[in-house]
Specification:
It is a single chain. By secondary structure, this protein is an alpha/beta fold. Helices cover about 35% and strands about 20% of the residues. The protein has helices at about 10-25, 55-60, 85-105, 140-160, 185-190, 210-225, 240-255, 275-280, 290-300; strands at about 5, 25-30, 45-50, 70, 110-115, 165-170, 170, 195-200, 205, 210, 230-235, 240, 260. The protein has a 7-stranded parallel β-sheet with strand order 3-2-1-4-5-6-11, with helices on both faces. It has a two-stranded parallel sheet with strand order 7-10. The chain has a two-stranded parallel ribbon with strand order 8-13. The two termini are about 35 Å apart.
Amino acid sequence: MKRALVLGANGFIGSAVTRELLAAGHAVTAADCVRDFYALAPHPRLVCQTLDFLDEVAVRHTLAGIDWVFHLVGTTKPASSNANMAFDVQSNVVGSIHLLEAAVAQGVERVLFASSGGTVYGPPRALPVREDHPTHPIVSYGLTKLMIEGYADLIERQHGLPTIALRIGNPYGPRHYDREQGAIPVFIRQLRRDQTIEIWGDGEIVRDYVHVDDVARAFVAAAGYLGPHRVFNIGSGTGHSLREIVARLEALAGRQARLVFRPARGFDIPAIVLDIERARAALDWAPAIDFDDGLSLTWEDMK
């Protein structure tokens, strides 16, 4: 049994990782800025703690006695990060450096970091994208993720603290409560309410959607990984366009959606699909939930 700290535990991915850790027999401190951990059910090996990620003293104190740290905190979103790049760096990069330094001081075994497979690479040269693909992000969100990966590498070389970054595709699934992020939950909510679905561009943008429970399994697998790799793509290895997602949701709803197309946004790359062979070979991980099944589960959950 390991003692794990999940930062951002009340969030969509964080709550799934917390549940997966508990199911694997570990003890978890679930930390988030909220007071009501509505996304988590009580458990004898679970302690919930309200924590400000940017409070260095509180974070250092919380790290005492922890073996694994899951860094799932983010203060910005891809669509808005370019609007205030300085805040993106100050809150995410600087906060992460303080976290890594505190982890070294407290003797943490390893850190697992939620990076972004959808934004760190930028426009791909070819699909699917491998971990050694050049990285030229076109949003601050992706650039700060890369900066955190870089500082983690530097700190490991200096102090021996390994950090494994999971470059996650587009996570989806039940219990996604964010009303503004994620095409699938936003589209489901709008379709259920018979609202117009807004699509930026022509609807042919392709993304790699991966079920959140598969993401959680990848984090726990990476926590026990002792090999040389420090970066893993975590996706499905296949892509789906926005038009395709709408069509599948229309089939679930039994009616046609009302669509409106807006001008394409400059920060949206046309397509991204992740090569997941490294994770398959090194972590013995692969997505287990079929996209159609996962979409149906998400639809039912959002009733």
